[in-house]
Amino acid sequence: MKRTVLQKAFADGLIERAERLEAGLVPRWGTMTPAEMLRHCTVTNEQILTWEGTLRPATLWQRVVKWYSLYLLPRFPRHVKGPKRYDMKGQVADGQFETEKSRLISQLRKFPHLRKPLYSPHPFFGPLTTREWGWVVYRHLDHHFRQFGV
In sequence order, what are the beta bridge partners of 127? Predict the structure, then answer.
């Protein structure tokens, strides 16, 4: 079974890991600080949770990348740059760490109790089902928590 934020046990596991994050941790790869990483994650999750709009069908390339990333790769690779709108480098003061951590934990508590489908587009994979979003959000957070050793 794939891990998903839509199941309470897996969301709770991510919350426990988030609670172990500390402001002074040094990343194992990349250049984000813990506060920047937390903001990055909350901004992406917020789009997933609140997006409203029209979906365009996935391109052939998006389908291939989605299939490879979700069904073949065991985890997301390091050093992959996302869209600029999710780059929080230099935009979050270290003093905002606890606020950002609380925001992320609050979001994680919402996922297992969602009543509406998730249907926002992913920048690399195109449209995803609610089930696929559950996998992607889990893997995204797992990726960044491993980045900081939690």
Answer: 121
Q: Strand 126-127 vs strand 121-122: parallel, antiparallel, or unpaired?
A: antiparallel
b/e map 58-89, b = 16+ CB within 10 Å: beeebeebbeebbeeeeeeeeeeeeeeeeebe
33-90 pLDDT, tens digit per residue, is 999 999 999 999 999 999 988 889 999 999 999 999 999 988 887 877 776 767 778 8
User: Mind giving me the DSSP string for the chain?
Assistant: ----TTSHHHHHHHHHHHHH--TTPPPSSSS--HHHHHHHHHHHHHHHHH--SPPPPPPHHHHHHHHIIIII-SSPPTT----GGG--TTSS-GGGHHHHHHHHHHHHHHGGG--S---PEETTTEE--HHHHHHHHHHHHHHHHHHTT-
